[in-house]
Amino acid sequence: MLHLNDESRLTGSPLAAGTEDQNTPIWKVLVFDSFCRDIVSTVLRVNDLRDNGITVHMLLEAQRTSIPDVPAVYFMQPKPENIKRLAEDLARDLYELYYVNFSSSLPRTLLEEFAVQTAASGTSHQIAQVYDQYLNFLCPEENMFSLHFPNTFESIHSPAMTDTAISSLIDRIVLALFSVLLTLKTVPTICAPRGNAAEMVATRLDAKLREHIMNSRQNLFAEGVEDIVAQSRRPVLVLLDRDIDLGSMLMHSWTYQALIHDLYNIRLNQISITQTDDAGRKAKKTYDLSVSDSFWANNAALPFPEVAIGIDEASNAFRREADEITRMGGVGSLDEVGGLDMGASTKQLQRAITSLPELTARKASIDMHMNIATSLLDSIKDRQLDVLFQMEEQMGRQTKATIIEAINDPEKKDLQDKLRLFVLFMLANEGLRQSDIDECEAALRAAGCDMAPLEYIHKLRSLNKMSSSIASPSVGAGGPGSGPSGAMSGSSDLLGKFSSISNRLAGFTDSSSLGSIFSGVRNLLPSRKQLPVTRIVESAMAGKPGGAGGIRSTVAAGGVGGGGASRVFEDFVHLDPKQVRRGNLAGSNATAGPRSQAASEGGSAQEAIVFVIGGGNYIEYQNLMEFAQHSTPRKHIVYGSTDIVSASDFLAQLSRLNQSTPK
Predict the structure, then answer these.
(1) In the chain, what is the greatest distance between 2 CA atoms, to the nearest angstrom?
(2) Are the beta carbons of 238 and 609 closer than 8 angstroms?
(3) How far is it, in rounded angstroms, from Cα 488 to Cα 527?
(4) pLDDT digits (tens, 9 = 90+) for 138-171
(5) CB 396 within 8 A of CB 472
(6) Which of 515, 508, 519 is nearest to 369 (CA)?
(7) Which residues neighbour 552 within 8 Å (Cβ) at sequence distance 6 or greater?
(8) How far is the CA of 619 from the CAs of 304, 532, 626, in angstroms?
């Protein structure tokens, strides 16, 4: 799109070699609406745009002046108001040529309206291209996507939502999922639990895919001969409702990425942290968490203590290389290396000078992660997140007394942390007596907690007879190394390293308090356990005979929801858009079609797309990635949700729902 939809410029095709140098960018302007701005900013930064020939980027809604003799790339949603603004820009003759790109399919009615407006102003000759890009989703990670629909859980459960509004939301989700599948160039089989939003999305998505494949003059999913192998191993799309597991949205994590999201709410791959300098002045800093950052890519899913060690090792390696370069140049710091005379320098020094930009970028990355780690350590110590994480890892061992003790502990200062801990305890113990619940709730009220989220969870469980639970660490759930002993396995070796690096880190960052913060943090390793979503995906990919029965037995056996979960997953709908005849393809009540591709072939699917309606988080994402990496053969899983939601935001949705839902 940024190359004016000219694929030859990306592939280096010789067809364009005679007309223009491939290395010479076409300088242009990028105009987008706010939604498409978020799509772009998630994966590209200003420098990336400049490398692709974008000199200026502006919002469609903003007042813009004319930039003549320059082409403009428009990227926007197909909405009437956007069409109107584009027609006005054409009438004002703001740019030379207009390359129009819509995030999803442009309806024919809007296309005709656009044609009428441009014909009336006599500007249609300036429109160089009109493309449907099917990019109406965000991609924060390589195997993760978000539809960027905030507060979806609240919208679906709100009594104020009309049937028309719910239907419109489902259609938006289906349209975005269609774009995701089109980007992946795959038509998966689909499975979803019956009776909720997931089934509505499944049936409408199946119909849309089927109509496109059967009736479109140009099948956008058409694959060439080279993709025959890919066609033979189609993925399974697992659609799930957030109601199946509320616990995962409230858990405390100990991995780097999930911790950052819990504390600072990663948005568009950016975080903002308020930090205090030595003089006591507070300043807000924004950091980009880009996949191009090798340290972030390699450490995001690791436990925080291992990341701290990685920062120390990266800083030591950088310092050694920097010292070597300054020694060869005879200068005092890297800042002076750039001013050396290249002609008078040796070849070895010239190579060192050439590597200076890479070293500078590494230093910026190390400084950023050091600042983030320092802030995380402050929060961990202040909120005792290491203690809370350890309690949740061993939730099966917790009692009413230990939970009340944690609630009353003045050292645990964050009230939401206390509420989250009790909710997880309650969901993990279905047989908890009402008197015990009342006693814990009285302690929460005395501590000053907002009880609205908990009250709504009670309503939801009562209305839907829902029983949700977190996975307790056990050998059956996580295999060898799980459970309390597994959670701490290998920690003694890390503890020695962890405690020994504080002084070196403090020297690197000029932070005198870092050592003391390190000494107050426990070194824990998360147990390898499967969350409810991961267990469902495992069963769906296994393609066991009996379909939903296999899912039911797996979930129930792992203790995730017990009888309540059995009722939720008693009957899954299974659809295949490529099948001529519609029907439940895998359920026990199937009357037409094969069970499923994996089941009929006697094998298991190696690829899956998991989508949660109502919000997801990095804890589930990392749990699925861990399952995929440890599978034999290795599986490939893509995780998506209507939005990536922090625990704080999810509690806020529950609180608002409690206010709008009658008792």
Answers:
(1) 83
(2) yes
(3) 8
(4) 999 999 999 999 999 999 999 999 999 999 999 9
(5) yes
(6) 508
(7) 565, 566, 569, 570
(8) 14, 12, 11
Using CA of residue 624, residue 627, residue 630, residue 631, what is the dihedral sign? negative
Q: Which of 593, 608, 583 is nearest to 186 (CA)?
A: 608
Cβ pair 629, 264 in contact under 8 A = no
Residues 6 or more apart whose CB falls under 8 angstroms from that of 325 comprise 334, 337, 352, 353, 355, 356, 359
The Cα 273–Cα 289 span in angstroms is 13
pTM for the structure as a whole: 0.84
Does pLDDT of 617 surpass 80? yes
Q: What does the pLDDT average to over 305-334?
A: 79
Tell me the one-letter amino acid at 355.
Answer: S
Strand partners, 284: 274
Contacts of 207 (CB under 8 A, 6+ apart): none
Q: Is 283 helix (H, G, I), strand (E, B) or coil?
A: strand
Mean pLDDT of the chain: 81
59 torsion bin: left (phi>0), alpha (psi -120 to 50), beta (else): beta
In b/e form, how buried is each residue of 596-619, taking b as 16+ CB within 10 angstroms? bbbbeeeebbbbbbbbbbbbbbbb
Residue 501: pLDDT band with limits 50, 70, 90: very low
- Nearest-CA neighbor of 575 among 597, 604, 602, 603? 597
Q: How many Å apart are CA 297 and CA 289, to the nearest integer?
A: 9
Say how far apart CA 318 and CA 323 lie, in whole Å.
8
Task: Give the count of beta carbons closer than 10 Å to the beta carbon of residue 633.
Answer: 6
Please determine, for residue 489, whether its predicted confidence score (pLDDT) is greater than 80. no
Q: Does residue 640 contact residue 611 with C-beta atoms inside 8 Å?
A: yes
| Cβ neighbours for 145, distance < 8 A, ≥ 6 positions apart | 137, 138, 139, 180, 638, 639, 640
pLDDT at site 6: 77
